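Quick one - first record:
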Amino acid sequence: MAFLARHFRVLTQEQFKQELAASSFGRRACLVTFDDGWWDNSVHALPVLEKHGIPAVCFVATGYLGTDKTFWQERLTRLLCIAAGRDGCESELLRAVGLEGARRADPGRIRRQVRNFVTALKAQDRATVLGLIERLENALCDVPESRLLGADRFMSWDDLHALRRSGLVAIGSHSHTHACLTTLGYEGAREEFEVSRRELARNDVPDVIACAYPSGDADALVEAAGSDSGFALGFGTKSGFVAHSSEAMHLCRINMHESDSRSRPALLYRMLGLP
């Protein structure tokens, strides 16, 4: 954030919208965004944004705020990582993931293998995914829920309001249930967006103008559903820069991963959007 504050003109959401519409982006303009609504946005990100005076947009999945629920990806990842450290725990499933007998393996390697497996599951039907989670939960029934959740938890609505009170963070929609919108069709995607808007308005967050598509999954129907639900901006996860010719409901971003921050050169390389 110090690098952005020193070398870029970091835009507010409203400035981004206006300059996109007017085709007037100046040099080194950028917009900072966060997806999902994780609790660490308020605990860790906000103080850094305030320190450097950086505006941002936080896209939240309203069905998870203020609850103990988490996305199935995080739930399954944590279950698999715990199961990998137990001899004989769901050995057939762990063998399919390549984790059987990984008790003494490097935790980082285990997590990478699990993440690759979970990412591949996004193309599977929901029943298959929920079945895997149920099997692992039954096998790990003696593990405290607090350990299964770990740090994968969402903000409360009070946390969200603290972001807004900072005057730096605008709130956007990340749908309601974080479902893959391209599997829902136009009507299903529009319902996700409209429920999200209603929940935000009911909790004193009106006039939300931007959305981000869960996992970046969007097609023409999803983008139309977002626009028809009242959003002026729609962000995906396709890597790239926003140009004057970019479509307002089909905006690219540069996705930042934890691995990008392992060294300063790698972080700066990624921030500059280099392939």
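second record:
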Amino acid sequence: MSIKIFKPKELEQFTAIPNNIFRKKGISMQASGLYAWLFSHRSGHGISVSFIAGHFKNGRDAVNTALNELISAGFIIKKDLRSKGKFEGYDLHLTLGSPGPGKPKTENPKTENPQQSNNIINKDIYNNNKKLKTILPHFIDLFPDQFKPKTASNKQSWIDCLDKLERLDKYDLRLVYKIAKHFRDDQFWSKQFLTLLKLRNKDKNGLKYIDRFADLYQDQSKPDAFKKIKGLKKFYLDQDFNLFADTNNQVLTEFHLKQLLSDRDIKEIIRYIRNDQQ
């Protein structure tokens, strides 16, 4: 999944850091440092949690915690990207923030006919609930019999969890299923991941397990070729689908990469990138 950052236009040509982040009481040094580092990149620069974690000594969990802190404090606005109604990722828009307490105010859109709007919402909820009931058995089958939901109430809790993963957390349920299956098959996590409801629970760092699992799943599903390029930051494709590698020292073109990797490695990397961007 592609993530891009955007700075206020007036700061585009400089690594200028708004003072508000340093005047905000109660915000962590870790979040302040990440905010400053994000400002050092041009608008539209592609990043990922793994990319940030690869730059710093902190792990992915710490990066996610800092990002969520900046979003909660109003220094970052997370904007979802959709194409024909399908969630395709999100961008992080850096703001000037505020030195005072509280989140920035947002206006709720007014509806001309609230009753009609409520009817539409109720209809959407009904249709989505109906869809989730058909999906639920596939998730139930991933768990041992003793941990499967038995009562109607328990099953509804799992349906509600799927609904929130899709509607609030913006996850494609097909990806959620792949993640759930992967960690149910994992030797360690199969003993810890015993209910679908765990995905929306938070770990000791305040990170939802669905976010933690998604990052781990992405890293573990990478082709072995990712380990063969020294100092690799990321692989990417240009508009003509030529492969490049961004490393600590230089940018490698596809010509250079073919001297270091096999044709099979190249194909696996391109396939991985395209699947990640879908």
